[in-house]
Amino acid sequence: MNDREPFDPASGVPATETPRSGSWPVGQPPDHRPPPGARAMNALRWALFAGLVVLALASVASYVSSRRPQAEAAKQQKQARYYCPMHPSYTSDKPGECPICGMSLEPVPAGSTHDAHAATGHEGDVPGLSSVHITPDRVQLIGVRTALVEKRPRVGSLDLVGFVAPDETRLKRIQIRAAGWVRELFVNRTGQRIDVGEPLLAMYSPEIYQSEQEYLIEMLAHPADTSAAGASSGHTHEAESVNAALTRLTLLGVPPAELKRLNQVPVALPELTLRSTVAGTVLERHVTEGQYVAADAPLFTIADLSRVWVLADLYEMDFGRVREGDRAVFTADALPGRELPGRVEFVYPTVSSETRTLRVRLSLDNRDGTLKPGMYGRVRVAGRGGASLAVPAEAVVNTGEHQYVFLARTGGHFEPRMVWTSGRDGDWAMVLKGLAAGDTVVASASFLIDSESRLKAAIAGMGRQPQTGHAH
Out of 1.10.620.20, 3.40.50.11270, 3.20.20.70, 2.40.420.20, which CATH number does the structure's domain 116-153+388-463 have? Predict the structure, then answer.
């Protein structure tokens, strides 16, 4: 076989000498047949090659798809050349007017962004408000001033909320220690004024009536034994029985006036008249005419209101500024212009777990009866020194439901922040919670920023935003 002749790999012979059936010598098989399994190996190679090609194509497609959003974002960022000063979230690639408010679009400052949330990572914690961005020239135009949150000594007086309450040492509860029925009620109105010795009610008590009869029997049976001469004459047993009957009446709550009557007129009456032992005002009436009352039932609560208490709540941060004996002035809302001087009589030792306040007490003269229990007013205490976080009072926006300020962030971003205050000290508002020392807040023109913040939050809540360019 010539090396230069074409060779047929399928038959193993030169292409010019194609064998015919039966042309091989007898007993001599062909020498160049393919080895066993060659076709299977060839198919496996092609399958592996095809798999590698598919993996390569998938990697290229994934890389292209991952780069496309970045390219589009970069393209949009490049195209956002103008924005609305009143609605910073609206941007456009060409000048014009804002479709929301009609203001002329302004050029985007170099290196700035118009999404307050993306720039600061905060949208604020005030319901109905959103962070806003304002350009430096507009900040200067509308007169925005900022101030640092700082600790300031409190040298002025403390203004506290107080209310009038009865003097607890002048309260009297009228009660009897025996059961019975109320036959007649002489004092039947809450708020009625009574004097010492004035009758309150007449009642029938079987136990008291029987005890009076037993006392009269013992007293009439041993009339001389109740004296010192009778006791020294050896009749001690009889004297003890009389004294025991008298003690029983006293323990049942029979008033001394009734015992004196029994000694003068030895007749037991089925009705016992209870009289007031104090002068004052009936704050509570627990009985009605004809009612059955048990031995432990209260009948009346009477208060002497010639002197009253004024209770005021002191915030936790001001505990060290008030001491017993400090001068104070109470002004009732119902008595404008009338100042009632007094002193801090007592500082309560416990703090309310709900309001985190400490209660202080004043005691005021009320012989003219102008102060009524439950009246509200202001208590001004000549407070002592102390330090507290403070911001300018005009920085705090008070809606009645919430109090908040606007934090001034970098890049012209303003974030609404909820705060809790404890009143004012001159031109400063004392902050209990919500801010930290070193924070920067808007001290003026807050109402303009507040309006823009509300408008932006309202538009965002609608779930749509009209635009002529594109929203960034």
Answer: 2.40.420.20
Whole-prediction pTM? 0.50
For residue 313, give the 3-state DSSP assignment. Answer: strand
Collapsing DSSP states into helix, strand and coil, what is residue 108?
coil
Given the candidates 3.40.50.10140, 2.60.120.200, 3.30.1540.20, 2.40.50.100, the CATH classification of the domain at 171-303 is 2.40.50.100
**CB neighbourhood size of 246 (10 A):** 19
**Which residues are within 8 A (CB) of 416 and not within 5 positions of it... i.e. 6 or more apart?**
124, 125, 126, 129, 130, 131, 404, 405, 406, 407, 450, 453
> Which residue from 270, 274, 357 is spatially nearest to 322, judged by alpha carbons?
357
Yes or no: say if 84 and 114 are a contact pair by the CB < 8 Å rule: no
Question: What is the rounded distance in angstroms from the CA atom of residue 9 to the CA atom of residue 12?
Answer: 5
**Beta bridge pairs of residue 162:** 312, 377
Give the model confidence (pLDDT) of 170-224 as tens digits: 999 988 889 999 999 999 899 999 999 899 999 999 999 999 999 998 888 876 5
